[in-house]
Model the fold of this input.
Amino acid sequence: MRFQLSEEQRALRAGMRELLVRRFDGDVLRAAVAEPRLDRALWRELGAAGFFALRVPEADGGVGLGLPETVLAFEEAGRALLPGPLVATHLAAGTVPGAAEGETVVTDVDGGGLVEWLEEADVVRGDAAAAVPLKSVDPLTPLHRVPGAHGGAADPVAVLLTAAEQLGTATRACELAVQHAGTREQFGQPIGAFQAVKHLCAQLLVRAETARAAVYAAAVTGDPMDIAAARLLADEAAERGARDCLQVHGGMGFTWECEVHLLLKRAWVRARRSGGGAESEESLAAGLLA
Amino acid sequence: MDLAYTPEEEEFRARLREWLAKALPGLPPQPSPEDWPGRRAYDLGWQRMLYDAGYAHVHWDASPTTRLIFLEETETAGAPYVGAGFVGLLHAGPTIAAEGTAGQRDRWLPPILRGEEVWCQGFSEPEAGSDLAALRTRAHRDGDDYVVTGSKIWTSHAEVADWCELLVRTDPKAPKHRGITWLAMPMSAPGVVVRPLRTLAGSAEFAEVFLDEVRVPVANRVGDENDGWRVTMVTLSFERGTAFVGEVVACRRVLGELARTARDNGRWDDPVLRRRLGRLNADFRALWRLTQWNVSEAEANGGVPGVGGSVFKLGYSHARQELYDTAAEVLGPESLDLERPWVLDRLSSLSYTIAAGTSQIQRNIVAERILGLPKGR
Ligand SMILES: Cc1cc2nc3c(=O)[nH]c(=O)nc-3n(C[C@H](O)[C@H](O)[C@H](O)COP(=O)(O)OP(=O)(O)OC[C@H]3O[C@@H](n4cnc5c(N)ncnc54)[C@H](O)[C@@H]3O)c2cc1C
Done:
C-alpha cells in the first residue's frame, strides 16, 4: 500500500500550482472581483495544460490519467479559488467539441436547479430555458436558478471533483490562518501564541487532513460511499475552515479587501451543488444497512 | 497513491482470516468487566493463541501495513481486544524494540508476545498530567540500582501488571525535560503499593501507585540516564499514532449494529437520527483512510509514526464519543440501563479525549509541531 503521492503525481500538482500562481495569484483574484469575467485566455491555457482532458484517453487526444490525478488538479484549482464552471467543462471533455482544449466553456443545470456562469458559457447541458438570474453571494460565481428543475442522481465524478475543490479551499484557509496567526501581534506577541487562536488553527488542519484522506481514497476506489463521505467532510472542511480563518483575521477578516470572504462564499456555492449535505448523509446512512 | 496490497500481504490476510474463523468459535466467554484477574487470564490466553499460531510478531517485526491488516482482520472478525496487553503490545513493547539493547529486547519482548507478562504505564503523577515533564518521582543511583520514591496516578491495569514503564527524575537540577529517565520496573519489587481507583464507569480500570525506596536495577534503564524524554516521545508516538488503529474498525462494526438496531426498533424513521448515523459513517470511513495514510507514511519513514497521530487522535476521540451518544439516541430510555450494550461504552468513551494526552494538548502539538505556530501561554 503506497497511499501517498507518487513522483508523477507530485510533479503534476506542482505544475498545476505553478501555473495558477503565475496566472491567478491572490492579487489577480482580488482584481477579478472588481470585474468578474471568465478569463478565456486562462481557460485555454488550462486546456493546453491538459486540465480538462486529464481523464480523456490518450487515443482520443487526452492525457489518459485517472481520478487521483484529476482530484489533485481540482484541489489546486480550489486552493487558488479559480472561478468558472470547471467541473462541468471537465466532464464534457471528449464529448463536447472544444471542451478538452479549453476553447468551449461548458456549464450545466445542477440537480439542485442552479446554473453557474450561464451567460459566459458556450454550451449548457440540461434545460436552462426558464433560468432566472440570482444576485450571487459569491462575486466570482454568477448564478441562475431554474425553477422546478430537479436533476436525477448526482454524477459521482462531479461530486468527487467538487469535494476536491473544497479540499483545496480548506487547505488555503488553513494556510492563510496560520500565516496571519504567526505575524499579527497583540498583547506583545503573535496571536498564534494564544491557545484560543492556536486551537482554531489546529482544528482547521484536522478537518482538512481528514477530508484529504477521504477525498484521495475516494479517488482511488471510485466507490460511491467513499465519494459521499469525501464530499461531506470536504464541504465541512471548506465551510468551517473559511469561517474559522475569518475569525483568526479579526476585523480585517470582515472586509471586502481581505480574500477570506471569497473562500467562504465559494465554499457555500459548492456546498449547494447536488450530492452534498443531506443527500450524502442519507446515502451514507442507507449504506450502513446494505 | 494506491490502496493496493502486495500479493504477500493479501496472502497474510487470507491465512489470518481463515485461522480466525476456526479459532474464534472455540473461545471461552468473556469475563465480567469487574473481574480483573479473570480479564488478565482471558486477554493473555488470547495472546498466547495468537503466538502459537504465529501472529504475535506483527506488533514489532512486521511492516506497518501488515500490522494494519492484522488489526483490521482481527477486529472485523470480532476477536478479543488487546485488553490487559495494551501497554505491553502497543507502546512499551514497540519502544523497547526501537530503543532497547539486544539483551533488553530478549528479556522483555518474548514474554509480552507469548502472553506471559503484563505491562502498565507509570507516566502521569498527581502534579504532572498534561505537563508530563513536571514529574517529581525521584531516583538516585545506589550501586547497580536506582532507588525510586514518589507516586504515579491513573495507571491503567496496575493491579494486574508485572512490569511498569516508569518515568523518573534522575537529575533534579537539570532543565525539566533533561533530567528524566525511562525505566522498566518490576511491579513485584518491595516498596510498590497499588491502590485501585474507581472510574466513573464503576470499574477499577486504573490505580494509584506509590513507590517507596523501590530498587530498580540500572540494567533496566532504556536509553541513557537523563535521556528519558526522548525515549518518552517514541513511546507517545506509538501510543497516539498506532495504538487506536484497531478500534476504528471496531467502531465501524458498532455503527452497522446501531443502524440495524434503529431499523428494528423504528428509530430509523427519524431523519435527524438517520442523518446523524450517515454522518458518522463518513467520519469513521475518513478516519480509516487517515489511518491508512499515516501507516503509509510510517512505512516510508522507517516505522515510527509521525505527529500525524495527533491529527488522528483528535478526530477519533471525538467521533467515538459522538458514536456512543448516537447509540443513546437509538436506545432511547434504555440508554440509562447499565445492563444494555453500549451504555458502558458510552461512559468509557468519555476518557478518550483525556487519556494519552487531552484534546487541548493534542491541539497544541498540532499547532506548534505541524503548523509551526509559536509556543506561548
Ligand atoms: C482512562 C484513563 C487511563 C489512563 N491511563 C494512564 C496510564 O496507564 N498511565 C499514565 O501514565 N497515565 C494514564 N492516564 C492519564 C492521562 O494521560 C492524563 O489524565 C492526561 O494526560 C491528563 O492529565 P491530568 O489528568 O493531570 O489533567 P490536567 O493536566 O490537570 O488537565 C486538566 C484540564 O486542563 C487542560 N489543560 C492542561 N494543560 C493545558 C494546556 N497546556 N493547554 C490547554 N489545556 C490544558 C486539559 O486539557 C484538561 O482539560 C489515563 C487517563 C485516563 C482518563
